[in-house]
Amino acid sequence: MHVPDGFIDAPVSIAAGAVAVAGVAVALRGARRELDDRTAPLAGLTAAFVFAAQMLNFPVASGTSGHLLGGTLAAILVGPYTGVLCVSVVLLMQALLFADGGLTALGVNVITMALATVLVGYGLFRLLLRVLPKTRASVGGASFVAAVVSVPCSAAVFTLIYAIGGTTDVSVGKVAAAMIGVHVLIGLGEALITAVTVSSVLAVRPDLVYGARKLIKPLELRTGAPGGGPADRPAEGPARPSGASA
Amino acid sequence: MGAGHAHRLYVAGDSPVHRLAPQCKLVAVLAFVLLVVATPRERIWAFGAYALLLGAVAVGARVPLGLVLRRIVIEVPFVAFAFLMPFVANGDKVAVLGLRLSESGLWGAWNILAKGTLGVIASILLAATTEPRVLLLGIERLRMPQLITQIATFMLRYGDVVTAEFARMRVARASRGFEPRDLRDAGVLAKSVGALFLRSYERGERVHLAMVSRGYDGRMPVLHDVGASAAQWSLAAALPLAAAAVTLAAWMAA
Fold first, then answer.
1. Same domain for B233 and B116?
2. Per-window interface: A 175-204 vs B, CB < 8 A
3. Residue A66 in 3-state DSSP?
4. Is the complex ipTM higher than 0.90?
5. Same domain, B83 and B178
6. Helix/strand/coil percentages in chain B, nearest 5
7. pTM of whole model > 0.90?
């Protein structure tokens, strides 16, 4: 949920803004390492993708629906720093142009939806990949677990900010129960979509899944084909890893 | 790729508000919203005064009222939340229309509704009087790192393209009889999301190559400058200054 103006009081909103600026500054430096001079067009198109994917409402429980946050998904696909940048830019544009999420609450929104989801989601994803066998199935499984945990964590971070600077007199326990309860359900939908999306990208273009780069085997050149074929012909085209079947 | 250049959020016009430099409007809106958020919620008249100020801006910018009202629906989810407040909040109970509601919950609901709505209207007016492209120039003028504004530029430029692509996928799914009912249908949606990511990213790769072949070296050339004069700054300052007077009065009246 995009936090509107007036939900969190002014001092805490400003402090959250400062934290968000620091986080985005770190992400800026990191993104240049991840993508070098291709950063702007690729991160821009990924941001457009996150923006479109956030319009996808999936049914959660009777009557309610949640939309994709996309933080974990973006981080696994394009890397954590670029992921933070993409989601933050989406939030900035939503606040400025679409009035979705308050301008003063932008810091809170960046912390909960960009920084928290990416930190928790991507951190957990890497941790799981380290212990799981190096197969495609475990990448899918790790993305599922990472996403399912990241969404309630984001809700928990929001509850924490609410406990410090909330303007309403609803007890923190009630807010935590409601927010985290709903977001466990939203997290399930988010996790399912994240896992299947990552798996389907992995099947078609494994080189585009940043979080699973280590799984790609280097191309091998096979020569000496039987039947007198052009055996010494070099491998065609740029590196499209073999063994990718969709 | 044949998207129009004027964005649907923008209302073309030639009012003094339209002509203001974007960075002036950005600072003015941000200061205004901060002042609104900092106002004690018990001073109901102060929020009326803020609403009048925004009304004056809307009239000055000749933004049709209908457009503002249509776009306010973005806040519906948290209006629903605000209406729950009086039922779940702590504190003394008061009887309203035969219901026992929490007094502080009522104040909380009013607080969110008033401040949230004023913030939404301020953003709507900003977007209606400033082209997104110019708005980004304004952000850059305010020392936003160029990489961020470049990413935002690409996002805006291709946002419609990618969204339209996604809409075509939805039509394709629907025409094959797909209708999402519960969580089990998420798999089908996710395959679309995967395809959408591939198409977006590969489009990004092509865009990058096209830009490199035209001499892109990581920076965008500045095609037109949006410098602001002192007169523009002082005109833009009228809104936050008036709001500051209201905020001050609201604090004094305590």
1. yes
2. 188-189, 192-201, 204
3. strand
4. no
5. no
6. 70, 5, 25
7. no
